[in-house]
Amino acid sequence: MNDQENSTPEMDDAMFAYSQADYQESIRLLKQILEAQPEHFEALTALSMAYCRLERFEEATRLGHQAESMRPNDPLVHTNLSLFYVKQGNKEKAEHHGLQAKIASWKTEMNPSANHAESDSDSNIPMQQPKMETYKTPSKFPDMPWKNKS
C-alpha cells in the first residue's frame, strides 16, 4: 500500500482526533478503517498507540503483535511493542523488542531496498546525497597588476 492510499480523509480525521488527545474518537475512526481494510498497517499501529494512551495495554500489545505479523522487520512495530511492555512492567519483553527495533533499523539502513517487499511507503523519499567538498578560499592572493599600488 502506498502513501496515497494511506492518506485518506478517514485516516486524516482519525489522526487529527489522536493529535487532539481525543483517543476514543480516534479509536472509533480507526476501527472503521480497519473494518473496511483489515490490512491497513498505519491504521493498526495508530490504533495500538491510541489504546496505549488510554492505558489499555493488553489491547495495545495484541494489536502490536498483529502489526508485527504484517511487517516483522519494521522498527516502529518493535519500538511500539517495547513501549507497551515497559508500561506493563515486563522488562524482559520490552528489552527484547527494543533490541529487535534496533536490529530492524540497522537492516533498513544497510539495505534500504529490503523493506520494499514489506512496504513501498518510503519509495518517494530521495536517497541522501553525498556531501560536496567545501572549497577553502586562499588567504593570500597573487599580485594583481591591475590594482593601483600606493
Q: Please, could you describe this protein's structure?
A:
- The structure is a single chain.
- By secondary structure, the protein is mostly helical.
- The protein has a single domain, classed as Tetratricopeptide repeat domain (Serine Threonine Protein Phosphatase 5, Tetratricopeptide repeat), CATH 1.25.40.10.
- It has seven helices and no strands.
- It has helices spanning 3-6, 9-19, 23-36, 41-53, 57-70, 75-88, 91-110.
Show the helix and strand layout:
Elements: H1 3-6, H2 9-19, H3 23-36, H4 41-53, H5 57-70, H6 75-88, H7 91-110
Helix pairs in contact: 2-3, 3-4, 4-5, 5-6, 6-7
CATH architecture: Alpha Horseshoe
Number of helices: 7
Largest sheet: none
CATH homologous superfamily assignment? Tetratricopeptide repeat domain
Q: What are the segments in which pLDDT stays under 50 over at least 5 consecutive residues?
A: 1-5, 115-121
Summarize the structure.
The protein has a single domain, classed as Serine Threonine Protein Phosphatase 5, Tetratricopeptide repeat. Helix content is 60%, strand content 0%. The chain has helices at residues 3-6, 9-19, 23-36, 41-53, 57-70, 75-88, 91-110.
